[in-house]
Each structure stands twice: as C-alpha cells, then as structure tokens.
Amino acid sequence: MKAIVDCNSFYCSCERVFRPDLSQKPVVVLSNNDGCIISRSDEAKKLGVEMAGPFFMAKDIIEKHQVATFSSNYNLYGDMSYRVMETLKMLCGENNVEVYSVDEAFLDVSMVDKNFLDEHALQLRKTVEQWTGVSVSVGIAPTKTLAKIANHLAKENKADTNCIYTLDDHNLIKKVLRETSVSELWGVGRAYAQKLVNWGITDAWQLSNMSEDWARTHMGGVVGIRLIKELRGIPCIEMGQELVIKKMIATTRMFGKNVTKLSDIQEAVSTYTSRAAEKLRRQNSVASMIQVFMVAKEQSHPENFSHGATISAYATLPVATSVTNELIIPALKMVTQLYEPGRVYKKAGVMLSGLVSENCIQSNLFQPPVHANKRSLMQALDNINFSMRDDVIKFASSGIKTDWKMRREFHSPKYTSRWKELRKVD
Amino acid sequence: MAFDKLYYSAYSGSKRFSQQNIHSANATGFSAAADDYMERGIDLNEELIRNKPATFFMRVNSDAMKESGIYKEDVVVVDRSLKAATGKIIIAILNGELLIRRFEKNNNKIRLLADSNKLAPINIDASCEDFAIWGVVTYVIHKP
Fold first, then answer.
1. Does the pLDDT of residue A218 top 70, yes or no?
2. pLDDT, position A368
3. Can you tell me the mean pLDDT for B7-26?
4. Which residues does A106 contact at the CB level (< 8 Å), separation at least 6?
5. Mutate to test the interface with A, among B58, B63, B76 (most CBs of A within 10 A)
6. In whole angstroms, what is the distance from residue A362 CA to residue A360 CA?
C-alpha cells in the first residue's frame, strides 16, 4: 500500500504556526512579486477567494473580510517543509519516504498491517501537526495514482474524514472512480483530459476498463498502460528517488512598473542572472547555455491586460560555468541585442540550461582552464550573502539603488532562519 | 602555504562546523599522530537540540520569567514534541498571543504562572477555547 501525505494549505499553515492569532481566520499567501494568490486557508476559500487568481481581483473580498495577506516567504516554507519531511522519515524510515514536492510526500506503508492503516495514518498526521504545527491530509491506496485520489477525498470534507481517507476495498474504489473525472487524475493534463473526453471517456472508472492494447495505441504507449494499471490497483509507479537535480534554472519577474530605459533592463537582467547563478552553485552545477527573454507591452492595445510576445535570445557558453560575471557578460550582450528603444517592457527573465555537474566540466581546447580562484570568489560571495542578508555583495551591473528583487509588501519574518527575526514571546 | 587553504572549509558558512579538514595538519605531521583520535568539535546543536524537526528558537520579549533566569532579549529553545507537565516552562497560546510561563496542572485546573511578583497567575478555564500549548522550553541562551 502507498500513502501520500499532503500539507493542508501549506504556505498559510506555515505562517499560522507563528501567528496563532490567525488560526480560524482567513489567510492568503501571494506568489513572487505579489501577483497571484497561491495558497488559501479554508476560511479564505469559503469567502470565495479564487486559487491562482490575480491578487488585485480578490482585493475587494480581502479588504472587506480583513483577510490576512502574506507575500511568499520561501525561507520559512523551505524550512518548514524540511521539518515535515524529516518528521515523516523519522516515523516511517528514511527509505519509505519519497519527497514529491515542497508539501507532499509518498510513503510506502506496505509494512503496516491492513487493519491498522487508518490508525497509522492518524498517528502520522497528529505527530506532524504536534512537532511542526503544520496540518496534513493522508490518502492511502494500493497505488500512487489511487492514493492521490484518496488524498483529494480526505481534503474535500475534513470534518467527516478527519483528514484521512483509505481506498482499499474493491467496491469503494469502483464507486470513487465513477465519481472522479479524468481531468482530476494525477499526471493527466488539460490537453490529455480533453483528448480522453473526445473519445467519450469522462470518468476514471471508464478509463480503468479500457484495454491495454487500446492504451498502447491511443494513450502514448507505456505511460497510458501504466495509468490504467494504477487505476486498477496494480502498482506501476514505484517509490522513486527524491526530488531530482534541476535540469534548468530560470529567474523571471514582472517589473511591477513600466520600464523603458536600456540601462534599467540591464540592471534587472543582471540581478536575475546573479540570482540564477547562485541557485546553480547551490546544487553544484554549471550551465552551458544562457537564455534571456523580455516581454514588452502590446503596442496596438495599450489598455489590454495581456502581455505582448516574448522575445528571446540565447548563447552557448565556451565553457560551462556557474561564475556570475561569466554569465552576466553574455546576458547583457543579449539584452542590448533584443532592446528596442521606445517600447515599454513589463517583464524579463534569465534561463540557464544544459546543466551538468560541476565536477565534469567539458574543457574547451581554445580557452584557458577555469581558475579555481573564481570558484572561491563565488563561494565567499555566497557565504557572505547567506550569513548576512541577500545582496550584501553584488555586481555593480545589478545597480546600486533600484530594487529589482521580488516585490514583497506583506513579507513575514524569517522566523526559523534569522536570529534577528525570531518570533517574540511575552 | 596558500592562505586560503589554511581555513579551508573550517567554516564554510553553512552553519556546520567540522575540524576534520584542516590542511595544515598534514604538513605538520600532526595528522599522522592524531588521526586515530579525530572527532568532531563540540557542537552546540548536539546539546541544545534533541528533536531537530520539532525544535524552534524564540526571543523573549518580557520579564515574566525573570526569577527563573529568563530575561528579556534571551533566546529560548522550544521543543514542540515534548508534553507539558507541571513545573515546566512552556510557550502558551492565549487569545492568539504567545506567552512564556510556568505550567501548572492540578485536578484539571490549569494555571500559567509568571516567575515575577509583578504578574498574577492566569487561570485557564476548562472551557477556554483560546488556550493551547505551543511547545516546551528546554534551554535558555542568555548573554550576560
């Protein structure tokens, strides 16, 4: 049997651990740059605040009901996520936990006696909540795909389920699959779901009754067969490795204001490149390709909400690198190429790709070897910025006045990572 | 010897200390003799943190526990996994606020005591919905 543990309104939960005055009150957390709503407490959901809706569209409801609003505090969420996952590992054994995302983990619960599954789940839920303050829901089923459905049901009606739902009985699975539309299934995207609906397959039960041959020809071969088998209760997606090292790193932001000057865009892109390079070094990788993109306002419809087309350029680096200045130079060159005077820019970004491990850089015959000093310099830079504050030391091309970082108007303290920002007790 | 090698990874800013990578040790012959006795240096985390995922730090903002040697601006180590018992210092949630007090439970009557004669004990009603225990204080870090 597999279980999935999923944190309830994770970002909101993290904020509430340190703000007990907000328990039972509506809370929302905004995305980077305060653009969209990315986490809502149950109370906020009840008020009709939409998930992933733009912040300004929900502003009326938020003001009227005094919904507590937070900018995303990833330092805090990262730390709390680590705590939740560590707790699960301590309770279930390290090898039985697969961290699936920041707020979800798959557990292998085959060693638990069938009759005690509910009790085991309850124990997990209570311990995680006691230790970390984060509430979770647990879905249990024979396969990962079914466990995902079970988890959804656990969350749907928390009062009845006690945040736990076990799908183990054949008849129950049949009933539940009939009520689950194909678009809700794990790994089924919008386009894929539409394709299935066009064939007349609308619920998961219908899908699970399709033949493997049919799946092979119509549903992308192995992937389709796997999905159908999983729905029938035959495990096909085994416990995988923990989160894989990223193959691509992107830093992109809305400017939050109208930007027209080349020098301003260069500062912004330089800042994003530094940020991306830092992320790159943190996972001990180097990038062999850098892409810069910019989005200008649509010229024909100045009042239109939608963005204009994305223009981009990319450069292949002579030697893969994670040294910030070696990435900034090509990035700024590309900005100059892409820039058109007189246009209003809304957004820019940098994407690093072709990532390989630092230890296996392919050297270039025509370039002198990378000096270890550069790496030490970057390490010193990262350490200083990490131990003091972001951007204590930065490249001059990133500008000295303008703040191109995220707009975080409602930022909460980094309660768990900075001595100066600890929660106070009276 | 290169200067940067001297301090190599003794402190790499990762908040983790290790004494095993002192390069100078090899040159002096110290390592050969001391290799068998290599051990990590004293790590405060070892002593102060019993259950890492459940341990948090908080800053004291009142003199409520002065008599117990917990002063304003001190840092307290709080373990959420421990059960509150009479006599223990806890972080309590009361009406949405976080308080540091001594916990007392007698025949289902709960009292929060301040170790300072200026503050009266707080009686917690059995029906009180706005009371909960956040965690148990295990250590105090005080700067003299």
1. yes
2. 63
3. 43
4. A2, A3, A4, A97, A98, A100, A144, A147, A239
5. B58
6. 6
Distance between CA atoms of B127 and B130, rounded to whole angstroms? 9
Residue of B131, B109, B111 lying closest to B121 (CA atoms): B111
**Across the interface, which of B53, B95, B98 has its CB nearest the CB of A423?**
B98
| Predicted pLDDT of residue A25 | 93
- In sequence order, the 6+-apart residues with CB closer than 8 A to the CB of A304 are A298
Residue in chain A nearest B95 by alpha carbon: A21
Residue type (1 letter), A135: S
Residue B7 in this model has a pLDDT that exceeds 50: no
Q: How far is CA A111 from CA A1, A106, A114, A116, A234, in A?
A: 8, 14, 9, 11, 17
Among the listed residues A105, A102, A181, A113, the one whose alpha carbon sits nearest the alpha carbon of residue A149: A181
In DSSP terms, A98 is beta-bridged to A106
A167 φψ region: left (φ > 0), alpha (ψ -120 to 50), beta (else): beta
E strands present in A81-147: 97-101, 104-108, 136-141
Q: How would you class A136 by CB atoms within 10 Å of its CB: exposed for 0-12, middle for 13-18, buried for 19 or more?
A: buried
For A215, the token pair is 């799946």
Q: Which tens digit of pLDDT belongs to each residue from A232-283?
A: 988 888 776 444 456 788 888 777 677 888 888 888 899 889 889 988 888 8
On the question of pLDDT at B21 being above 80, the answer is: no
b/e map of A3-35 (b: 16 or more CB within 10 Å)? bbbbbbbbbbbbbbbbbbebbebbbbbbbbbbb
Q: What's the residue count for chain A?
A: 426
- Interchain proximity B100–A416, CB inside 8 Å: no
- The CA-CA-CA angle for residues A346, A349, A352, to 5°, reads 170
Beta bridge partners, B137, equal B78
Q: Do A379 and B12 touch (CB under 8 A)?
A: yes
Please report where in the chains the tokens 């001990």 appear, as a residue: A284
Rounded to a whole number, what is the distance in Å from the CA of A275 to chain B's nearest CA? 18
Q: What number of CA atoms fall less than 13 Å from residue B105's CA on the CB side?
A: 10
- Give the span between the Cα atoms of B54 and A83, in whole angstroms: 7
**Both structure tokens of A80:** 């709390």
pLDDT in tens, A123-143: 999 999 999 999 999 999 999
Q: Which amino acid does the sequence have at A6? A: D
Enumerate residues 6+ apart whose C-beta is below 8 A from A57. Answer: A50
CB B66 within 8 A of CB B117: no
From the list A194, A149, A140, the residue with the least C-alpha distance to A168 is A140
SS3 A383: helix
